[in-house]
Amino acid sequence: MTKYRRRTARRQRRNRQLIIRLLIGLIPLIAIVALILPFLNSQKESKVEQVTTSSTSQVQEASTATSSSSAAAEEPAEISWEQQAEPVKLPILMYHAIHVMAPEEEANANLIVDPITFESHLQALQNAGYYTLSPEEAYKVLTENVLPAGKKVVWLTFDDSLWDFYSHAYPLLKQYQMKATNNVITGFTENGQAGHLTLEQMKEMQAAGLSFQGHTVNHPDLEYSSIEAQTSELTISKAYLDSNLNQNTIAIAYPGGRYSADTVVLTEQAGYKLGVTTNHGLASASDGLLTLNRVRILPTTSAEGLLAEIAQ
């Protein structure tokens, strides 16, 4: 064997011995890692599970809190009624249409209130501490001479069951959590006349706290109608609302505000408890429950002007 080969052989033996020593030294380290790794994985999984559980719990708690808050906001507060020393004067506001007037509607301009103006009215009433009444509450106020504790009252009424009560007024009334009454021309609803509320829309809004009362079947001038025609208009419209909305309809708005002494008698005989007119002013029991005044709302009625007009 040459001298070169002997040196190469010795180098190879030393390398093999070095590798063997390294492997022998790594064995304890590998064993320790093998023992620790499952423990580390277990700890990691436990932490992930804790974080996930905590996050889920927080989300559930937040969801529950939101639901509770929403439910609390939607649930009406219990009303405490207080007897009044002086006769109550009730503002009954008279609206018709709530939309932006088109040029071709100029003939009916005084009946159309812009939605922005309407919202300013609601906001002003809310800020001034007004409580909006249902027809039944309006009857209670006038017959028992009571008011909700710490509140002023107003009854929002809309004549003619127009389409925009659903599309424009309803969303704003919901936003401000206010009640209102629409006086329905029942023949228009029953026949599906364009531009007027459908029965399905009325049922949806009724479920949300709004109310629907009488405005006759065909919107005639009751003052100059025959006894038979008036009786038919008053009773058939009430029966339609009673049956389809599962209610006892207690109020009527006389079409165009026109009525006679006969109309008042026939209205009472038909089963109505309240009748609203277009006579201007605040309503009171002394005026007669079937001939109540209203405050006409014009497109030019400002929020400040409204509050000034109904202040007592």
Q: Which descriptors would you attach to this protein?
A:
two-stranded antiparallel sheet, about 300 residues, elongated, 9 helices, 12 strands, eight-stranded parallel beta sheet
The helicity comes to: 40-55%
Order of helices and strands: HEEEEHEHEEHEHHEHEHEEH
What is the molecular shape? elongated
Which regions have little confidence, pLDDT < 50, spanning 5+ residues?
Answer: 39-75
The largest sheet is: 8 strands, parallel
Q: What Rg, in angstroms, do the CA atoms define?
A: 38 Å
* Number of strand elements: 12
| Terminus-to-terminus distance | 128 Å
* Proportion of residues in extended strands: 15-25%
Overall pLDDT metric? 85
What's the number of helices? 9
Classification by helices and strands: alpha/beta
Task: Give the topology.
Layout (H helix, E strand, L loop, with lengths): L2 H72 L6 E3 L8 E4 L1 E2 L13 E2 L1 H13 L2 E3 L2 H10 L1 E3 L3 E8 L4 H12 L5 E4 L1 H5 L8 H9 L3 E4 L12 H19 L5 E3 L7 H9 L4 E7 L11 E5 L6 H8 L2
Parallel strand pairs: 2-7, 2-12, 3-4, 5-7, 7-8, 8-9, 10-11, 11-12
Antiparallel strand pairs: 1-6
Overview of the molecule:
By secondary structure, this protein is an alpha/beta fold. Helix content is 50%, strand content 15%. The protein has nine helices and twelve strands. Strands 2, 5, 7, 8, 9, 10, 11 and 12 form an eight-stranded parallel β-sheet that branches. Strands 1-6 form a two-stranded antiparallel sheet. A two-stranded parallel sheet has the order 3-4. α2 crosses α9 and α7 packs parallel to α8. It starts with a helix and ends with a helix. About 12% of the residues have low confidence.
